Amino acid sequence: MFTIFGLLQRSIPADPLEPGKWLATETKAIALALNLIPFAGVAFLWFIGVLRDRLAQQEDRFFATVFFGSAILYLAMLFIAAAIVGAVTLMASSAEPNEVINSTAFRFARATAYVCMNVYVIKMSAVVMISASTILLYTAIAPRWIAILGYVLALTLLFGSYYIGWSFMVLPIWVLLMSISMLIDAFRRPADMRGDD
What we know:
Elements: H1 2-11, H2 22-25, H3 27-55, H4 61-94, H5 97-101, H6 104-139, H7 144-160, H8 170-188, H9 191-194
């Protein structure tokens, strides 16, 4: 996710109403980023699976459902935004870039991808963090500070993501912290607790 967002932020200007000059020069970096998104999506699904497996019998149905549903919606909207950007770049490579840039379809697709990423994906990542942090507090399967950090970051995304240019990175950084914590905990637990033979 870090590579994907880095490539996309470097290649696509933040302003959804900019003229689209990046279509003529940045398509290779964008194509690489878009081709990495499915791998990041699979990794995120593995994270969801590992977290739910760690919960086992402690899983609270309500918060687990909100967590799972918001995580799936996060991925779906991320994939939709990527598909829209991919379609725009494909249109630009198959036609005259200036013709695509001046079309209404380009402006609509660009604005749709921008709103999808900057509103819906970001807000859904906040819901993922709030529900997961609540689960962490109830079950204590991770350090309490990670749950509290999750709440703080999620509230920041809910109310301030419009003003923060790096808001895309908040969920991946928090997931990385959670993953490291779960990995360290897995190595600390005795072999019989991990399910090893």
